[in-house]
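Issue 218. Parser rejects a valid record. Input:
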Amino acid sequence: MRTRNKPVLIFFCLLLSAAAVLAGVNIYSELKEQQKEKEDFAAVSQIAEPTATAALTESEPTEQPAAERNIQALIAENSDCIGWLSIDGTNISYPVMHTPSEPQKYLRRNFYGKYSQSGVPFLDGRCDLQSTNLIIYGHNMKNGTMFSNLKKYVERDFLNAHRTVKFETADGIRYFTVTKVLRTDITDAWYNRIAAEDCRQLILSTCYGSGKDGRLLIIAAET
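Output the parser choked on:
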């Protein structure tokens, strides 16, 4: 009886071992990809560092504060880039892309257009920088990158401590103050509000909850 069962047990053990090895390979590949994406964004951040020329430009009077980052250098590197989004005290500090003819081009591509699980935050294809409502999309990544930190806005203490959102473009810096946090889904009317009635608003959108249609919207008014 024991002899007859022994091959079955051996096969079962081999199967478990193979599954464990495969899981290990997948985890290693995922971690390696995450590390590469972080290195890629670090390289993009280097491109955006202010230069001596940019510093001189910042001293000139303008209607809005000059950009702290070298947005022109980013645009020269990739003309799909329109600016840089950041929120102090969070991990959110990324370039923003805009491709109206292919709205979701950077959903799964990095700054250079190569495949990326995280993608790059991008402006809604129906919007432009003159729109009174600016809708920017970004993934809610489990590793804490992209728009993952936005989910913390459901906590009042975090909201009160991180109300200012900064959006830098070639024209300068625009500051927005978070006024509303919505746990909703893809059918929310906010996704069709391309024009605001009273002031320019920035809407940050990311996945939220266990359902594929769940969304979190962070709505901020320009100050």
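Fixed in the parser; the record now loads. The helical segments are 2-47, 52-58, 71-77, 156-161.
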